[in-house]
Amino acid sequence: MKRNSIYTLIACLLLAACSSEEEWNLSDHTPAIELGEGQIAVQLNLQTTDFTVEETRSATPIDLQIENPMYNLWLLHYNEEGGLVESDTKYIHLNDKGELATNYTATLTLADSNQGTLCLIANLEGTGSGNNPSTAYAPSNDKGSWPKTLQLLQKELLTLPINQNATDATLGLPSKMFMYGFYQGTLNTSHPVNITLGRMAARLDIVIKAADSKSTLHNIQLQLKNAVIKSHYSPMKIDSEENVYVDFPEDKTFKNETVTSSAPITCYYFTGENITPEIGKETVLIVKADKVTAETKEIDVIVKCNEGDAGAQQCGYEENPDYNNQKGGFIDYDTKTYYRTTRDGDWFWGYTYNYVYYKKETRTVKVEGSEKTVPCTYTIKLGANAPGTSDDYSLYRNNNYTFNINLK
Question: Is 0.90 topped by the overall pTM?
Answer without folding.
Answer: no
